[in-house]
Amino acid sequence: MKGNFIYSNPTKIYFGDDAQTNLATALAAFGKKVLLVYGGGSIKRNGIYDDVMKALADARKEVVELAGVMPNPTLDKLHEGCDVARRNDVDFILAVGGGSVIDYAKGVSVATWYDGDAWDNFWVQQHDPAADARIIPVGAVLTMAGTGSEMNGGSVITNTAAKMKLTKAFSDRVMPRFAIMNPRYTFSLPTYQLAAGIYDTFSHIMEQYFSGDDDSTSDYLAEGLMRSVIASSRVAVKDPKDYEARSNLMWSATWALNTLIGKGKRQDWMPHMIGKGISALTDATHGMTLSGIAVAYYRHIMPYGLPRFARFARNVWDIHCDGLSETQQAEAGIDALAAWIREIGAATDIASLGVTPDLIPAIADATILNGGGYKSLDRDDVVSILLASLPTN
Ligand code: NZQ
Ligand code: ZN
Q1: Structure pTM?
Q2: Mutate which of 147, 205, 206, 268 for ligand 1 pocket (most atoms within 8 A of beta carbon)
Q3: What is the pLDDT of residues 302-343, one digit of tens each?
Q4: What is the C-alpha separation between 221 and 316, in angstroms, rounded?
Q5: Which of 143, 188, 254 has the most ligand 1 atoms within 8 A of CB, as the residue to mutate?
């Protein structure tokens, strides 16, 4: 490891098929008035809402409900949530859902009492709340594995008017104080969301792995996580009610993006930048935007990081490389990735997400160029990758 870093993570995790029995205790440390934030209603159909309401009653909380947080939560919805939180002067926010709901809760946490343009300050200018700023603590009950939002400071908000989807990674104060993680809660996920979450997890790991050339513990951790995701995904897509596979996927997703495996490393994140550009224009499902461009993206940058791509083939996909050149090894690894994307049912192109050739310039404009991993992309590179991500026929 060559890089210097600080690591801390304040989120307390309650994990397992009885995790929700800890919710009342976890809530006890916080104030009386709880803003219960959730999405489009899946929690009412699968029973999670009832579990949560019981815990809130056991903890003698007063509950204000805020429903209807959409996938890819919008700035307009954030403003609505801040109004509700302010009017009711809530003490705590309990987010029950996937990444969209938890990200949104963090947004309400920082924006409710911010006296200014929260979008501009936090998401555009990337400031953190002042040390003495009033923020509302957040807790999470996770219902979908993928984003890692349950144990990180990320909050991704879409400004539909500006056609911008931006991430702010907040510091420790804004991260969930606790997360309840019951893998059984993910059993009711539609197969499309299961595949999207699996690929999102994998992409998070790859985007920290494909950079650097030193001998780094972080990369060995990344390889182990990728192997676990591949093995568990193969079981879960065939039998979505396999508890062990779902628990591995849930825990891997958390560790894929709670900052640990990026420590000491420069990181890539260009697939996420392009994926957010796609969602900003199409509202497509996050994980699918990443799988839809993955093969084109990695073929594009492969020549700039050949040894790492060859290592990916050997150590992640167990490809026997005797007699193969480094380039052939690297290509075999990307072929294995492409086959696995098909196998788990994730998007293999971006046309299926609503991207048409005429949208590509606007997506490229909405894509932030961050310097990347092995290759620093410019706008032309992004356009080429998007074009190569359209089906060939
Ligand atoms: O709206 P509800 O009813 O909750 O339904 C959701 C939604 O329709 C459904 N769902 C979730 N759990 C379910 C369920 N349906 C049945 N049973 C369950 N147990 O699944 C759909 C998708 O949910 P969503 O929360 O949007 O998915 P995900 O967890 O993938 O979150 C995506 C958002 O997170 C952001 C993405 O950009 C996107 O906005 N990300 C957040 C990150 C972070 N905080 O660090 C990093 C990621 O890279 C990502 O950018
Ligand atoms: Zn992601």
Answers
A1: 0.98
A2: 147
A3: 999 999 999 999 999 999 989 999 999 999 999 999 999 999
A4: 11
A5: 143
* Rounded distance from Cα 284 to ligand 2 centre (Å): 13
Diameter over CA atoms, the chain: 68
CA distance 388 to 289: 14
Share of the chain above pLDDT 70, in %: 100
Instruction: Outline where 257-285 has alpha helix (H).
Output: 270-282
Residues in the chain: 393
Nearest CA to ligand 1 atom 47: 147
Instruction: Give the single-character DSSP code of 123.
Output: I
| Tokens encoding 117 | 């343009």
Angle formed by the axes of helices 270-282 and 191-209, nearest 10°: 140
Q: Do residues 274 and 293 lie in contact, with contact meaning Cβ atoms separated by under 8 Å?
A: yes
The Cα 302–Cα 383 span in angstroms is 17
Band the pLDDT of 393: cuts 50, 70, 90: low
The finding on whether 150 has its CB within 6 A of some atom of ligand 1 is: no
